[in-house]
Amino acid sequence: MPQLMPKTLAIAALLALGACSSGVKLDDTANAGAGAGGTGADARAVTPVTAADPLNDPNSPLAKRSVYFDFDSYSVKSDYQGMLGAHAKYLSGNQGRKILIQGNTDERGTSEYNLALGQKRAEAVRRSLASMGVPDTQMEAVSLGKEKPKAAGHDEAAWAENRRADINY
């Protein structure tokens, strides 16, 4: 009986290894074009390249999506008309796209005051875009108040960075 145990273990190991092999034949023709300078791609499967979405281009004016405000203000500065014009043009040409405009404030002031000011900032940007032809159905304006600061810190530089409205596609 002791000699039967090693033979049984050897047979079990061979069966286990045999079960690991695959009876599926691999298709070597899929990689046939990959040698000798070929790419392996079927020319019939190639789709033409289209222009990249300008929203993803860091050099596009659409890459800028924040409008900054002065302390305790919700007036959109004339400096932002070009940037907002680019967004208005994009939205007019892509009527299926929608934006969420998020108004933000610095940490100074009560939560209630900052929520109201953030809403006024978001609405000011929405009105600017509407005056450029963007329909209300493509825009939503909300306030985040002081809850989502862009810059951490308790100085004028951080506060100035947090007084903004962000355009999110």
UniProtKB/TrEMBL annotation:
Its main location: membrane. Keywords: Cell cycle, Cell division, Cell outer membrane, Lipoprotein, Membrane, Palmitate, Signal. The keyword Transmembrane helix does not apply. Residues 56-169 form the OmpA-like domain. GO terms for cellular component: cell outer membrane. It comes from the Bacteria. Gene3D superfamilies: OmpA-like domain. Residues 1-26 form the signal peptide. GO terms for biological process: cell division. Pfam families: OmpA. It is a lipid-anchor. It is found in: Cell outer membrane. PANTHER family: LIPOPROTEIN YIAD-RELATED, STATOR ELEMENT OF FLAGELLAR MOTOR COMPLEX. Belongs to the Pal lipoprotein family. Part of the Tol-Pal system, which plays a role in outer membrane invagination during cell division and is important for maintaining outer membrane integrity. The Tol-Pal system is composed of five core proteins: the inner membrane proteins TolA, TolQ and TolR, the periplasmic protein TolB and the outer membrane protein Pal. They form a network linking the inner and outer membranes and the peptidoglycan layer. This is Peptidoglycan-associated lipoprotein. The lineage of its organism: Bacteria, Pseudomonadati, Pseudomonadota, Betaproteobacteria, Burkholderiales.
